[in-house]
Amino acid sequence: MTYLPDPATVSRHGDQRTAGRARFVATGSQTRGDFGLYEFTLPPGAVGPGPHLHRTFSESFHVLDGELAVLAGEEWTTASAGDLIYVPRSGVHAFRAAREDVGARFLILFTPGIPRERYFEGLVELYADGRRPTTEEIDAFALQHDQLNLRG
Predict the structure, then answer these.
(1) How do beta strands 58-72 and 93-97 pair?
(2) Longest dimension (CA), the chain
(3) What is the pLDDT of residues 16-28, one digit of tens each?
(4) CA-CA distance, 64 to 53, in Å (whole number)?
(5) Residue 30's pLDDT band (cuts 50, 70, 90)
(6) What three-state secondary structure class fits 46?
(7) Please, what are the domains in the chain?
């Protein structure tokens, strides 16, 4: 019997789904759960999620353009184009645009390839039609997607 590996997967830009500021470059379902790769864009001065952690997956940020401020543990660091920041499982982190006048475009790599697109799509739904969900609603939703938001 001859072993034939699974064929390569091609994710074409025009076929990739988006949700808010995220573009799903390669989802876990496309990579057999190996990884998820998402492109994210933050306009100048924009904020991302506050301090949080994930217990079942790691998260890496690779900056393509601009500057991204990332909280790693207790310290903020600024990453520029070409820089990579790795956050291991259970590592406390957050991110935001580094300055009011500079945004960022970056890749987020999740390993293993959990279905993180459900989180991004769900966030868009939570804020649909100008709705302002409560902190409790956001935290409960995040927790369903292995994101423990840390407050205080």
Answers:
(1) antiparallel
(2) 61
(3) 999 999 999 999 9
(4) 23
(5) very high
(6) coil
(7) 17-149 (2.60.120.10)
